Amino acid sequence: MLDLLYSWCRRNSWKAVFGLILPCITSMSLLAQPQDSWTLEQSIRRAVEIAPEIRGSQAAVSARQGALQQAGAWPNPQIELRADDKIGKDDGTGGTGFTQLAFSQPLPLSGRLGHQQAVAGAELDAAHADLLYRQIQLETQVAQRFHGLQLAEERLHLAEQRLQLADDLQDIGHRRSQAGELSKLESLRLDLIRESAQQIFDKAEGSYNEALSRFRAYLGLSAEVVSKLAPLKAFEPMPDLQQLQDGLSRHSALLAARHRLEAAQSGVDLARAGRLPDPSLRLFRERDFLNGRHQDVTGIGVGITVPLWDRNSGRIDESRALVIQSQSELQALERDLNSRLQQSYLHLNHLVQQGKHYRTRVFEPAQKVFDLTRKAYASGEVEILSLIDANNTYFDTRERYLELLQEAWLEAAELRLAAGLTLVTTKLDTDHE
Q: Partner of 355 at 20 to 30 A CA spacing, among 106, 197, 263, 281?
């Protein structure tokens, strides 16, 4: 649609061009949402599907599930079969034969299995929380690339509009120069404006292609998938800081740290239970030569290791130190997350307010100045230098406004990371529930 309009402008007088081209540019809303555009939510879901970091965290969960299953398993029994020549010597027949069959079963009566399951269960919960936190971290990384590509695309569109306007101004200048209405110096200035716009466009095109290539490679997307992005728009509404702080206790990173603390505390109980080794029950059947005939003997015995030299005191001290370490890490994480949350919230609020102020006090006035200057130039009230200056000011302020929008969205991603909030619901969230 815009290309057809530009073609129509070329075929008409310079007054018609100036009367229509600026409204075409300024009427394009920065907040419009195109159809069938690739969104941040789609990017996040794609990243969760293919990211090796997610697969690694999922494997860690599976490993902890296996550890929990193993933690409750009883120790395996032992079967002994002995053969010797004792009977052969006693009865004078000679030879070797089986003389004993024994069955031994360790009995975990110290409560060790329960403590092992408590440790493994807490570590499994920590792995689940780590997986969710890894998703939020991945969302932040995807958002950085997505919003960077958004800005590159918006800059490319802006450079296209700048170049198109420069082309139209140059065409008008050539016609007015041939008619004797424009000096050679003014015509050269228009040529310089056109070449400058071309350089800006070439740079924007190169930056966009590089950002698009990095984005597609990160998500493993083909060239046909990401053809158009959702445009940058103003971030709103601002979340409630008190609600974010109230929900901070449910932050997946904090949950993981708490579960690791629980595992460390259960580890102390496990180390204490290890001071007394498990007893072993032994059932046996022996064959012997007694009173001139072969006889079988059946018996039962209980064996226990005497904790004379090793009372597991070193392991207990180690486990207690791990509890202190886990407590310290949890306290430091709570402090850091709360600080990051407040700082990110304040920064985001500042960017949002700055964006609103910039739009109303700088961008929109620059747009009006450009419109008035265009009309004044059409009536011969101002020279071309004023039009050039108004043109550059308009495009520069519009680009700066786009940068403010991008900075706000980037900070919003950091705020979600600090608050432990996920932007989309994936299978990872439902599996954890």
A: 197
